[in-house]
Amino acid sequence: MPDLTTDVRYVKGIGEQRAKGLEKLGIRTLRDLISYFPRAYDDRRAYKKIKDLVDRENACVEALAAAAPTLNRIRKGLELVKLRAVDETGALDVTFFNQTYRKDNLHAGETYVFFGRAEASGRKRAMANPIVEREGERLQTGRIMPIYPLTAGISQLTLVKAMQQGLAACQQLLPDPLPDQVRRERQLCHIGYAYEQIHFPAGEEELAVARRRLVFEELFLLAIGLKRLRGRRDELACQPWRDTDLGDFYAALPFSLTGAQRRAIDGIRADLASGRPMNRLVQGDVGSGKTMVAAAALLCAVRNGRQAALMAPTEILAEQHYQGLAPLLEKLGVRTVFLTGAMRVRERRAVLAALESGEAQVAIGTHALITADVAYRSLGLVVTDEQHRFGVAQRSALAAKGDRPHLLVMSATPIPRTLALMIYGDLDVSVIDELPPGRQKIDTFSVPGSYRQRIYKFLDKEIAAGRQAYVICSMVEENDQIPDDRKAAAEYAKMLQEQVFPHLAVACVHGRMKPREKDKVMSAFAAGEIHILVSTTVVEVGVDVPNATVMVVEDADRFGLSQLHQLRGRVGRGRHKSYCILISDNRNEETRARLKVMTQTGDGFKVAEEDLRLRGPGDFFGQRQHGLPSLKVADLTCDIALLHEAQQAAADLLARDPELSGCPETARRLEEMFESSADAMN
Ligand code: ADP
Ligand code: MG
């Protein structure tokens, strides 16, 4: 009898070759298989008579093959199989492109179900490349089909067939991580039912019931895990730090800090003096001045005789921090060093020696700061900037270099409070909700693609005036494969360079470039050698190019609002008037409403709240910027009310049974979920 740990090769149709493909998707056992959830669904329930087919709408048609299919070779590489199918209302012309085998497996006089996008004009009805099944088969037609993320060599059909067998074999064996009491109190369905319906929903309501339960389960486990981490941290103790006078620091700044900056600094000082390791997140919109808050914290460490490290996710960001902070810190008598992977051996050796002896008090750099050969004399504080680019593992590696150092995390992603509580459940949060005075508004426009020529003209004008521009294009998704951003950016850049701006320097960056290459292009852009930088979202990172004044986003509807806000934050960083142009041909009302939010407010928190209201928190979880265990279903959808319910249920359970001795499956799943992040949060 198969069980949850049975190898997937048990499934009929899965041999060595496909097992290898599945392994790439993280599927080894039957449990892995049935826990691989669809990313979307295709509703193929609608049956239509041929004459009722609507142009450009998907539908199933049951029709009889009126004659044998014919094969036409149009040219090398293009073969058409054509078939005429009829029902009592009319005839349907079916064409298959390069599916020559169809000629022999469709037979005159048999009835088939065709599913596809209809073409209807006048009395003519047609479908190209429909899905075909024998009548009554109903594997791929006449139902709501799951759509799985795929990899090479694994097709939707392979997964669908495997899934059916996997579910049949062990759906009833699934142990439930939700304690029975919780499940009943919250009116959630059984786990077996949830698994069946998430893959093969009988209808929308059934799917909603299944999803609600799985989302709840995930949020519930996450909430318990975070509460326990926090509980453990609260028990840790360390020597309280002396509170230090920062008067000379404030006096050395060329501006006075905003109220929000001061509040964040006070929060940090209180943490440092509390006798417990700090674990604080400072959240502030782009340009809100987080760096100075970090600087104050660095100074507190030094004045307590400890070393401090400031870690940035890229060379160029680290460099910018160093250039910006070192003069200020040196002026206050702090010896500051810079460390990245790109340094020469001799330089590097000198820096390492200074850190080990304690002569260097502050280190600014990239993850070179945490490689094995770096030793600190007394590391007391670690600050990470733009933390969502850092894995939890990296944070914990740095933490391990000191004796329970204080941790400070800076994030430019505004997250609504409700969510921050969940996502950063184990962190204390400071919010910088005030921008330094005198910031200019970035004029934001939402326009259709027909404006492109005018936009290009505008770019030309700005660049002639000495400015620079970003053009963001979204990734190309190909046949359900992992999206390829390299192609999107490179091709678009090539087109712009050759056809639109032959007289300018256009370059591109994308996610598949080596960090070194990426930094090189970014540096050239920062130095003004490149006029237009085409990119996918890699420029989201907080690079500062004050001379860039235009941000153009293609297919803006494909981005989350918070992401768009991040992108917009790349401009408006200097003294020049800046613009953000969002291009989208999507006429969907909700999409229009979302983009309109962008044109109406420049406040990142408002944008985030609106995004949350319009789309639910799935997006926030989906962006994986929290460094916590990844969520599978909550990415799809979930509502705030459910989030609160899950937190409440978690708190109740821990109050009742803090050791989880009454629900071993809950404990087991938690261990699985948190295994990599357990020690990261102290
Ligand atoms: P971010 O929060 O995006 O990291 P930065 O720390 O890079 O923002 O600050 C953005 C810019 O604002 C910097 O040039 C910084 O010197 C400046 N700045 C920071 N705080 C203030 C302030 N209180 N008044 C005026 N300018 C400030
Ligand atoms: Mg910053």
Tell me about this structure.
The chain is an alpha/beta fold and 682 residues long. Strand 4 and strand 5 (90-97) form a beta hairpin. Residues 618-629 and 677-682 have low confidence and may be disordered. The protein has 23 helices and 22 strands. Helix content is 39%, strand content 18%. Helix 6 (191-199) crosses helix 7 (204-235), helix 9 (259-272) packs parallel to helix 10 and helix 18 packs antiparallel against helix 20 (604-615).
Short description:
The model is unreliable at 618-629 and 677-682 (pLDDT under 50). The relative contact order is 0.10. It contains 23 helices and 22 strands.
Descriptive key words:
23 helices; disordered C terminus; 682 residues; seven-stranded parallel beta sheet; binds adenosine-5'-diphosphate; binds magnesium ion; 22 strands; 18% strand; 39% helix; alpha/beta
Topology:
Layout (H helix, E strand, L loop, with lengths): L15 H9 L5 H5 L5 E4 L14 E8 L4 E6 L2 E10 L2 E8 L4 H4 L5 E11 L2 E5 L2 E4 L9 E4 L8 H15 L9 H6 L5 H9 L4 H32 L11 H6 L6 H14 L6 E6 L5 H14 L3 E5 L3 H17 L4 E4 L5 H13 L4 E4 L13 E7 L6 H8 L6 E6 L5 H7 L4 E5 L10 E5 L4 H13 L3 E5 L12 H16 L5 E4 L5 H12 L5 E4 L12 E6 L7 H8 L10 E5 L5 H12 L3 H12 L2 H5 L17 H17 L7 H11 L8
Parallel strand pairs: 5-7, 10-15, 10-16, 11-13, 11-14, 12-13, 14-15, 17-22, 18-20, 18-21, 19-20, 21-22
Antiparallel strand pairs: 1-9, 2-4, 2-6, 3-4, 4-5, 6-7, 6-8
